[in-house]
Amino acid sequence: MMNSWKWIWRLSASLSAAATLALAAGFGYGAREMMFPRSNGMETASPAEAPLAQREPSKDDGSYRIAAIGDSLAKGTGDVTGQGFARRTAALLEPQSDTEKNGKNVHFLNNLGINGMTTQQLLGELEEPGVQYVLKEANLILLSIGANDLFQGGAALQTGTGAPAADSIERVLPEAESRLEQALDKLREINPSADIVYVGLYNPFGDIDALRETGNAGISKWNAAASALIAVRAGMTLTPTFDLFQRDTAAYLSFDHFHPNAAGYERIADRIVQGLR
């Protein structure tokens, strides 16, 4: 009888230990999902245990590893689905069927977009180790920046103070262009081999008479400067969006009349994918 009780206690202890291990594993998995969530079925990168300097570069397995960085457009502000052009681009690049021969697997690593980001703030962001980690893992980097330098995030329109003065745009352009050049070089330094897609600016004020002319002039100068910078850098392309919002502008903008809505972001994503293929 005594031996039976010993056997029962040993079995209970073993089961308790197994349950504790299972609980710990479940907690660890849950914590990981909270810190590095997955969404839309696409993978999210988690930091490696080794320091960045010791990390071996990922081998090219033929898949897309996408990261987005920049301002609120990169983040997807205005899209009620939360996808923006970055995740919409990833979705469009996914194989459309099991028999699609040219399709690649797509891993969406992270969206590093921040509302209100300027070129100056982007330069600071590119010095962050966590940001650099994500960018080093990517082989396709989507960049949107510049609108806040030119138009302060559309503040002139939203506060009713009128269009940004032409001479104001002229003043900010040279320094903003210089910072964009620095940012492009820093991105290439961080990741020497990734394809970098810069999303050109559009004029959200194109359907407002008082803002159209100044907006068109400033955006055109900025896009021309960005195009010239990108043309002399290998592995970089500019995706033009100016024409996408010229006709029926309001149909593709969110309620703030500055950021794209879901339809607007879909048009940008379509254009990005066209350039990649």
Features:
277 residues; five-stranded parallel sheet; globular; alpha/beta; single chain
Structure write-up:
- The termini are far apart.
- Helices cover 49% and strands 10% of the residues.
- Mean pLDDT is 79; it is low at 5-9, 15-59 and 156-163.
- It has helices spanning 2-35, 72-75, 84-93, 119-125, 129-137, 147-151, 155-158, 166-190, 209-231, 262-276, and strands at 64-70, 106-113, 140-144, 195-199, 236-239.
- The protein is built from ten helices and five strands; from the N terminus they run H-E-H-H-E-H-H-E-H-H-H-E-H-E-H.
- The protein has 277 residues and is an alpha/beta fold.
- It is globular, with a radius of gyration of 24 Å.
- Helix 4 runs parallel beside helix 8.
In short:
This protein has 277 residues and is of the alpha/beta class.
